[in-house]
Design goal:
Radius of gyration: 17 Å
CATH topology: Spore Coat Polysaccharide Biosynthesis Protein SpsA, Chain A
Distance between the termini: 21 Å
Length: 238
């Protein structure tokens, strides 16, 4: 049975990137649906996305990457997709690695597959030194707390099973969600694994996490991860 696949592309002010990203995805997959979640962009992101064959959901204002991605999960759940893949709208994720992400989901070996830039043999672009410090800190913290080895907890290049789609459509971290989402997944008994991928520098624009906010980011996400341990589990029928 062929599983129904959706690519979720959250995008905030990705003019100049979003159209290229969508076209690249379409060139890599013969049968695929794409939904661009335009997160209240103030540039021409929505218009450029609408010039492609992707579905476009435009949020009335910027809710942040967590809210945008959860909107994508809700779209996937309501439209009966079996697998979802999250791809950033800035072109950093190399879509030639779709198949390694998808294969464990298709074979029911995992509910969430994370594309890691820190696993051999693909050790290319791995972000700035300052951001790598934060990534490695969260990798050690999450690995310790979950007893599940994670090397790239901030990677937004991920594939999800139908079960994971249901969980995250109902409950997903709001701000800087990727590290906390791993903790949430483990609380709901979802299996998580990583596969090696290669990433690229974004061609245009800047990341939402800049140098002057790194300490704030690390503090906030660390608190969210620790609070997730004691947070009351939301009831979701799986």
């Amino acid at each position: 049975m062929v599983k129904k696949l959706l690519i979720i592309v959250p995008a905030f002010n990705e003019s100049g990137n979003i159209k290229t990203t969508v076209q690249e995805i379409l060139s890599s997959q013969s049968v695929v649906d794409i939904v661009v979640i335009n997160d209240g962009s103030t540039d021409t992101t929505a218009q450029e996305a609408q010039e492609t064959s992707a579905f476009v959901v435009s949020l009335p204002f910027n809710v942040g990457v967590g809210g945008a991605v959860q909107t994508g999960f809700q779209f996937a759940w309501k439209n009966n997709y079996d697998i979802a893949v999250q791809v950033d709208g800035d072109g950093q994720h190399d879509v030639s690695f779709f198949e390694p992400l998808l294969e464990p989901i298709r074979q029911n070996k995992a509910d969430i597959v994370i594309g890691s830039r820190f696993l051999k043999p693909f050790l290319g672009y791995r972000s700035s030194f300052v951001r790598r410090v934060g990534i490695h800190f969260f990798a050690y913290l999450i690995s310790f707390l979950t007893q599940c080895k994670v090397t790239d907890p901030t990677s937004g290049f991920r594939a999800y099973s139908r079960k994971a789609i249901k969980v995250f459509a109902a409950d997903y971290p709001y701000d800087y969600p990727e590290p906390e989402a791993i903790m949430l997944a483990k609380r709901f008994g979802l299996s998580v694994m990583e596969v090696p991928v290669q990433m690229r520098k974004r061609a245009i624009g800047h990341s939402s996490i800049r140098y002057f906010t790194t300490l704030y980011y690390m503090t906030k996400v660390t608190c969210a991860i620790l609070l997730n341990i004691i947070r009351k589990k939301k009831v979701i029928e799986l």
